[in-house]
Design brief:
The protein has 477 residues and is of the alpha/beta class. The protein has helices at residues 3-14, 16-29, 37-49, 111-131, 151-157, 210-224, 264-285, 304-317, 324-334, 339-353, 358-364, 385-391, 411-415, 420-442, 444-458; strands at 53-56, 65-71, 75-81, 136-143, 166-173, 177-178, 185-194, 233-240, 252-261, 288-297, 394-400. The radius of gyration is 23 Å and the shape is globular.
Length: 477
């Protein structure tokens, strides 16, 4: 192991108490998209105290900031997040569903750890820069609203990454691997229908039902499913039914669609067809429809040059080593996952240990303290890291902060977000990222190789800027 890996790891360990406290505070703030004012200020103020140059409110987002230290090229970005999820409030360390605030926000995806580890990596690199005569700039990006709003797409649109040479980030999970599987591009679009209200019994002929339009649109989209690629996913939620009185023709109704596909260009095509279904439903019902796209997530452009570099440092830090107390802590959460999540755990265990060895692997590994190589058969979600990856060579990895089988968007993940495993893996992830940034400082030719690969993978395509020009970051209405 190179000396700089040990030195940077020691610098992270020296900040362990502070970083764990920051992560736990963000967990406690539990703020949803574009409302992360306490989490944002906590991290921005901390970076100022660490002598970073901090710029608040970047990209038109009140709760976004960038903290920078160093000079010259390469410029390496670390992508942090700190938003929570609605409806996932949960007490810590309790292996039963027990919300702190019923219906409140909770850190179901572990962004309290995600952002703090990236921040910690940036601080370690900064302190090592002060001790070594080497050129390079490290940036920590505090990125809001990854969940349900795609906050990074706005930052990309506003040029916040135009001079960055490479980006690195990670994500909490229950398996440790470099993210090589596909992440689906994803648009979020509101369809708001306007009709005419009337008494449903006394004068139904005078009414034009907005709710009928929503329902007809949904039927039309469901018939689309036969005629789109198998990898595409379309989901919807009726966000406004127009009231609760059945004897009134609803004059307004609204539905929110999430439209996903492997490539952002495919999502654009599907979104146009979905919008045609909306217009057709409005025509059929004598209503009008307002179409408002509020979020866009692009697909993740993989960069094997960065993947291999980061994976090298993962192998230097892993296995972490867990105590028997840690293992017992994990077992109590694996015991309360759903049958569906247990089936997913078995599928991943079969990938790692083979079909005949899967059950023993699960039994022997209450925490999976090893790196899984290759391309695990993971479900395809969406991430706004994809938007950054279209502009800049990017690597993301997952790390084992939760008990095996833990679903990310569920109370079990929230409950483990302040636990001993979470803290240990968060610090390990910071060490991996710090070593990776320093490696790129030492070997700028690796940065150029990553850029060359990035250009080859894109094959002349440019970032499609999937947000409408009038889209602005904010709370949906």
């Amino acid at each position: 192991m190179d000396k700089y890996v040990n030195d940077l790891s020691a610098l992270v360990d020296a900040k362990a108490s502070e970083l764990s406290d920051i992560s736990d505070q963000v967990w406690g703030f539990a703020e949803s998209r574009f409302q992360e004012f306490k989490s944002f200020e906590l991290q921005a103020s901390y970076m100022e105290k660490q002598h970073f140059k901090v710029t608040r409110g970047i990209g038109g987002e009140d709760t976004a900031f960038v903290a920078e230290f160093g000079s010259g090229k390469p410029v390496i970005g670390l992508l942090g997040e700190y938003d929570g999820l609605d409806g996932l409030s949960q007490e810590a360390d309790v292996a039963e569903k027990k919300p702190i605030v019923p219906g409140g926000v909770g850190h179901g995806c572990g962004h309290n750890m995600l952002g703090t580890a990236c921040l910690g990596a940036a601080v370690a690199v900064k302190e090592y820069l002060e001790k070594n005569d080497i050129q390079g700039t490290v940036r920590y990006y505090g990125c809001p609203a990854e969940e349900n709003a795609g906050g990074k797409a706005y930052l990309v649109r506003e040029g916040c990454f135009d001079d960055v040479d490479a980006c690195i980030t990670w994500h909490p999970g229950w398996l440790t691997y470099v993210t090589r599987h596909d992440m689906l591009a994803n648009f979020r679009i509101f369809y708001t229908f306007h009709g005419l209200s009337s008494h449903a019994a006394g004068a139904p002929q005078l009414g034009r039902s907005a709710l009928d339009a929503v329902e007809l649109m949904d039927v039309g989209v469901n018939y689309m499913r036969e005629h789109m690629i198998d990898e595409a996913r379309i989901h919807y939620a009726i966000t406004n039914t127009g009231g609760t009185a059945p004897n009134v023709v609803q004059s307004e109704a609204q539905v929110l669609y999430a439209i996903r596909a492997p490539r952002v260009t495919q999502v654009k095509e599907l979104a146009a067809r979905v919008s045609d279904c909306a217009r057709g439903a409005a025509l059929m019902t004598g209503t009008t429809v307002d179409i408002k796209q509020v979020a866009a997530y692009s697909d993740l452009i993989h960069n094997e040059t960065l993947n291999l570099l980061v994976e090298k440092h993962m192998k230097e830090i892993y296995p972490i080593g867990f105590t028997e107390e840690d293992k017992e802590y994990a077992r109590k959460f694996t015991a309360v996952i759903s049958d569906m999540d247990r089936a997913g755990l078995k599928r991943l265990a079969e990938y790692v240990a083979g079909r005949t060895g899967a059950e023993k692997f699960i039994e022997d590994n209450p925490i999976i303290d090893q790196i899984v190589s290759g391309k695990p058969p993971m479900g395809a979600g969406s991430t706004d890291v994809g938007d950054v990856s279209w502009k800049v060579p990017t690597c993301q990895f997952n790390a084992n902060t939760w008990a095996p089988g833990t679903p990310a968007h569920a109370w079990q993940a929230v409950a483990q977000g302040k636990g001993p495993i979470a803290h240990k893996v968060m610090l390990a992830s910071a060490k991996i990222m710090a070593a990776s940034v320093w490696d790129l400082f030492l070997h700028p030719e690796a940065v150029e190789e990553a850029k060359k690969e990035h250009a080859e993978v894109l094959g002349g395509e440019i970032y499609p800027d999937p947000l409408p020009p009038d889209a602005k970051p904010g709370i949906w209405d």
